[in-house]
Design goal:
- By secondary structure, this protein is an alpha/beta fold.
- 60% of the residues lie in helices and 6% in strands.
- It contains 16 helices and 5 strands.
- The chain has helices at 3-6, 18-29, 48-60, 67-75, 93-103, 125-136, 156-159, 172-183, 187-196, 201-209, 211-225, 230-266, 280-320, 333-342, 345-361, 368-381; strands at residues 37-41, 81-84, 113-117, 142-148, 163-166.
- Strands 2-3-4-1-5 form a 5-stranded parallel β-sheet, with helices on both faces.
- Helix 2 (18-29) packs parallel to helix 3 (48-60) and helix 13 runs antiparallel to helix 15 (345-361).
Length: 385
């Protein structure tokens, strides 16, 4: 039985994390069990942010039946909630300093002031150091809630100042059931989406509801399977980067236009009217932020493709060891079985290592196209560069 079926509001959207919900519910209701800083860790899609905001809602509400306050928290509009969710590659020092300043404000309406930091792993060392004193000696009624994939993603000095809550990875069946319930999609499509997303709830929901995303994923995997040399490696790499770029533009274009229109409306500039010189710096700052968000969106898109490729070669390894009972890409089983028979295990491991190295490389300032081309040449040749 999942937590979503047993826990009351505001915990009802947290699926499959009964132990974590129980720990945080106890902390929200018993001051003796409440730490001043928490770290929620778990794999992508496990529900870190959902749990963080449910915890914040329970902390801020005056009592367990104060649904109005809790709904405000979940909507991100309560004055005692400060949340940072970055669309950029890193969390900046300026953003961290702003959080620290807010943490010293007394609660204005609720029991606690809660600071939620999503993607806390995106803080470099200098930025993390800004938080240290605030985490070590916060005001009595302030609670910090950080979210990250793992404790290892944060500095030891940060880890020593927080209480960790580790989420378990949900089962495919759990994610499929949730997606079917949320979207009304048929069970077979929901199961396939959950499996292809490797139990990442957000990605599973997108695959379940976006036929184009499902098609692009299938075409990409089949294209990589068809790479036979440098020529096709370069061609397929180009297609992968172009598809990721188009996807990133689709995800960000509408939001960018809405933000620009909102800014111009706020400063009194009518649509189509020239922007006064005094306001151009504000517009330029917005555009810089949007460019950084677009860069992250592109990198995230390429990383999703690499994650899919990892799942494919993981399936090949499974087949090479005569395991066909838990394939992620069972629709490609015949092709993967042929590859498993043709390749030695060592070559499949080279492919998996190359994908991991490429994912790390793309976190630095390298050309995504060149990195992807190099990866596909390595996979097709079975030799490391």
């Amino acid at each position: 039985m999942t937590a979503a079926l047993t826990a009351p509001f505001p915990w009802s959207d947290v699926w499959g994390q009964d132990a974590a919900v129980q720990t945080l519910r106890q902390a929200a209701s018993d001051p003796a069990a409440l730490s001043h800083a928490w770290l929620i860790t778990g794999p992508p899609g496990s529900g870190r942010s959902t749990l963080a905001y449910a915890f914040a809602a329970a902390l801020i509400a005056d009592h367990p039946d104060d649904e109005n306050a809790m709904r405000q928290v979940l909507a991100g509009t309560h004055p005692d909630l400060t949340a940072l969710r970055t669309d950029k590659i890193i969390i900046t020092i300026a953003e961290a300093r702003s959080l620290v300043e807010r943490s010293y404000f007394a609660p204005s309406a609720g029991r606690y002031r809660v600071i939620v930091v999503e993607d806390a792993d995106r803080m470099v060392e200098r930025t993390s150091n800004v938080l240290l004193k605030a985490l070590e000696e916060p005001p009595e009624n302030t609670v910090w809630v950080l979210c990250a994939p793992s404790e290892a993603d944060l500095l030891p000095t940060i880890r020593s100042r927080v209480r960790a809550v580790r989420l378990r990875e949900p089962e495919v069946a759990d994610v499929a059931r949730l997606i079917a319930l949320r979207t009304g999609i048929d069970e077979a499509t929901a199961e396939q989406a959950a499996r292809h997303a490797q139990r990442h709830i957000g990605m599973a929901q997108r695959l379940a509801t976006d036929e184009g995303a499902r098609r692009r994923r299938d075409e990409t995997l089949r294209a990589v399977l068809g790479v036979r040399g440098v020529g096709t490696a370069v061609e397929v790499a180009g297609h992968i980067i172009q598809a990721a770029t188009d996807d990133a533009k689709t995800l960000t274009a509408e939001r960018d236009a809405a933000e620009r229109a909102s800014l111009l409306r706020t400063v009194g500039v009518a649509e189509g009217q020239a922007v006064p010189p005094a306001l151009r710096s504000q517009l330029s700052a917005l555009e810089d932020d949007q460019k950084k968000r677009a860069t992250r969106s592109l990198r995230d898109g390429i990383d999703r493709v690499l994650t899919d490729l990892q799942s494919m070669y993981r399936d090949v390894i499974m087949l090479q060891f005569d395991r066909d009972d838990a394939l992620i890409n069972s629709e490609l089983q015949a092709d993967l079985a042929a590859l498993a028979a043709a390749w030695p295990v060592e070559r499949t491991l080279i492919a998996l290592d190359a994908i991991s190295d490429t994912r790390e490389t793309l976190q630095r300032n390298v050309s995504p196209l060149l990195a992807t081309e190099s990866l596909l040449v390595t996979i097709s040749s079975g030799r490391t560069p």
